Amino acid sequence: MSYIAIIMHTKSQQIPFILFITFLAFSTLASGQTNQSDKPLFYGASLYYGKFQVHTKSLYPYNGTNPYGVEFEISQLLLTDNIRETFGTFIKWGLGLNYVNFTHEDLGYSITGLAYIEPYIKPRGRWRYSIKIGGGLAYMSHPYDEMSNPQNLTYSTQFAFPIFGGASAYYYFNKQLAIKATASYQHISNGGIKQPNLGINYPVIAIGMEFSNNYYMVPPKKKLRQFKKDKRFDLLAGYSLKEDTTNTNNLQVATLIINQSWQVSRINALTLSGLIEFQEIGDYQESIDQWSIAPLVGNEFLLGRLRFGQQIGPYLLKGEKAPNQLLQNYYLRYKINAHLMTGVNLKAHGRVADYLSFQFGLMF
Q1: Would you list the DSSP string of 80-121?
Q2: Residues 6+ apart with CB under 8 A from 337
Q3: Does some domain include residue 76?
Q4: Per-residue confidence (pLDDT) for residue 221, from 0 to 100
Q5: Are residues 6 and 135 in the same domain?
Q6: Each residue's pLDDT tens digit, 337-349
Q7: Same domain, 58 and 185
Q8: Of 48, 169, 285, 318, which has the fewest beta carbons less than 10 angstroms from its beta carbon?
Q9: Are strands 250-263 and 91-101 parallel, antiparallel or unpaired?
């Protein structure tokens, strides 16, 4: 609880007070509602406190910086048999709005809208546990500017793309009112649209409360039907525009991804991919330095029609723009139908994002 005390002594002393009033409202509303539902809505509010991660020497001036913030959420718990058979458990999906102060005049603050999915590890009882992944769009108050803010190398656009992953523990006072604690890892960058773009990375501990104005029953455990382990072959094309630090024009990036996926559980698959990438380089017209080739291995979460993947691999052919030998891919893809897929892909080197691309492809 020490991190709440730190927040209470910041300039924004009004935030804990507002949250306290919100908690009182939650308690009052939760005590008087009994609407039965198998898709109850929850309303939540949290305070959180983090630690800025210095992943390159250029960011050392921010060592010891501790972002803090407040978040409000609305979520829906899905308690249908179809959801349990698909995911092996019950899940929540939700939307959030948060404010984060990065506690340094160079970095400013962010206001973020988020969407997330939250499968439960333990969905019943007073103590409940879940994992949570999501992303969204953030307004960034103090982007890099050559004249007014030349020290901020973490982001250079007014809008950026946050992603996060973590785990939560809930204690339910009754079926409608709970206190929760969450540990997560947050990343914010603009996906390489404009430089500099070293990104902001910070682990977070949050504490909050949530309530539902619906009465609901979590169905008891039951034996799930056997599921067929699916194998999938994907062929995807990607496209991105990336700022050239030596030229006034944005440079085009085109990718081809060949992917094989093997389902190993209801919500997990192993993936093996091949990446072929072409990046423009300034005024060069043709050069082997414009091409990259890499094999990738990873994990894929199967979330209904959504596919959230994390991959890593070494370059076999490394283009001039690649800063080191290893790369990572993080993607969110959506199954349009049995054979079409679309999504977004974030390519990174270590903790630094390279570019964000849009993808479209075929499934076999």
Answers
A1: -HHHHHHHSS-EEEEEEEEEEE-SSTTT-EEEEEEEEEEEEE
A2: none
A3: yes
A4: 87
A5: yes
A6: 999 999 999 999 9
A7: yes
A8: 285
A9: unpaired
Give every CB contact of residue 105 below 8 A, 6+ residues apart in sequence. 142
Residue 42 belongs to domain spanning: 2-215
Residues 92 and 178 in one domain: yes
Return the closest-CA partner of residue 49 out of 19, 5, 113, 105.
5
Within 10 angstroms of residue 344's Cβ, the number of other Cβ atoms is 18
- Between CA 43 and CA 210 the distance in angstroms is 5
How many whole angstroms separate alpha carbon 141 and alpha carbon 217? 43
CB-side exposure of 131: number of CA atoms within 13 Å? Answer: 9
Helix-strand-coil split of the chain, %, nearest 5: 10, 55, 35
What is the gyration radius of the CA atoms in the chain, in angstroms? Answer: 22
Q: Which residues pair with 306 in a beta bridge?
A: 303, 334
Give the Cβ contact number of residue 184 at 10 Å. 20
The domain that contains 40 carries what CATH number? Answer: 2.40.160.20
Across 117-136, b (16+ Cβ under 10 Å) vs e yields bbbbeebeeeebebbbbbbb
**Banded pLDDT at 4 (limits 50, 70, 90):** very low
Domain boundary among 173, 191, 215: 215
| Residue 260 tokens, joined | 């094989």
What does the pLDDT read at residue 76? Answer: 97
CATH of the domain at 243: 2.40.160
Average pLDDT over residues 70-81: 96
Tell whether 82 and 11 lie within a shared domain.
Answer: yes
SS3 37: coil
Q: What is the DSSP letter of 239?
A: E
